[in-house]
Amino acid sequence: MSSQLAHLRAEPARATIAEWSNGVPITSKQTALVGMVISYHRAPGGTRIVWCALVLDAPVRARLATPLSSIARRVAAAGVGPGAVTAAGLVVGVAACVAAAVAIWPLALALWLGNRVLDGLDGAVARVRGGESDLGGFLDFLADFVVYGGFVVGVAVGVADARVACAVLLAAYLLNNVALLSFASLVEKRALAFGDERSLRFTPGLTEGTETVIAYVAFCVVPVHAPLVAWVFAGMVLVTVAQRVRLAVTTLR
């Protein structure tokens, strides 16, 4: 990692995905490397690393982009729109929540993975059809968190010993969403160059979509350890909250 940081200091512009300034002679940039996101300041006194996170989501989404685009072209050719894919994903996701609540874990796992495939597919279909919209992005995000929260509630119903841990996980989700969406709103207000191909201005952190997939798979594969999975994942989400708060403080002050 030290060699990557040295390279970053020497040639920061090569991997830059966002840049902004707040009226003072300091340039802040956020750089994505494979599996790592770094936020740093460049000032006359030198470069200072202010935020670093190991992430899985960005590289995983990059690897899945090509096969999803291939499937999306077939889906679009059949006349299926991205809204229909989002709706189907929501139905499948809610069914996964119900399966978790009644402790049918193999079914919950299959439905959860099906929901994740459909969630990745709706945006790809929209891009193929050239019809990406802010409304579509909003509904996709809303559907995601219906399922994210509902699945945790399902686990709490299905595994009584996990109820306290699941409540803490839901509280961590709430804090994370407040940090994520508040910062996204201010990023939009200041016209800062954050974001990727998705409709909302997401800032990367320790726990994103891929990490959530892994945690929920663990719920289904080892439900006897659901309390431990929920506690560990809640801790990871709270680390993400801290990362986003630190990034906001560094960027907006």
What keywords describe this structure?
single chain, 253 residues, alpha+beta, Four Helix Bundle (Hemerythrin (Met), subunit A), 2 domains, four-stranded antiparallel beta sheet, 11% strand, globular, disordered N terminus
Summarize the structure in words.
By secondary structure, the protein is an alpha+beta fold. It has two domains: 2-54, no CATH class; 57-252, Up-down Bundle (Four Helix Bundle (Hemerythrin (Met), subunit A)), CATH 1.20.120.1760. It is built from eight helices and four strands. It has helices spanning 2-10, 57-77, 82-101, 105-129, 134-158, 163-190, 209-221, 226-252; strands spanning 16-20, 27-33, 36-43, 46-54. Strands 1-2-3-4 form a four-stranded antiparallel β-sheet, covered by helices on one side. Helix 3 (82-101) packs antiparallel against helix 4 and helix 6 (163-190) runs parallel beside helix 8 (226-252).
Provide a concise account of the structure shown.
It contains eight helices and four strands. The chain is of the alpha+beta class and 253 residues long.
Low-confidence stretches: 1-44, 46-53
Main β-sheet, spatial strand arrangement:
1-2-3-4
Q: Provide the β-strand percentage band.
A: 5-15%
Summed up, the domain count is 2
Structural class: alpha+beta
Secondary-structure element sequence?
Answer: HEEEEHHHHHHH
Principal-axis shape equals globular
| Mean pLDDT, all residues | 78
Q: Can you count the helices?
A: 8
Radius of gyration: 19 Å
- Distance between the first and last residues' Cα: 28 Å
Q: How many strands, what sense, and barrel or not for the largest sheet?
A: 4 strands, antiparallel
Specify the CATH architecture of the largest domain.
Up-down Bundle
CATH superfamily of the largest domain: CDP-alcohol phosphotransferase transmembrane (TM) domain
Helix content: 55-70%
Using DSSP, what is the number of strands?
A: 4
At CATH level 3, the topology of the largest domain is Four Helix Bundle (Hemerythrin (Met), subunit A)
Using the coordinates above, name the CATH class of the largest domain.
Mainly Alpha
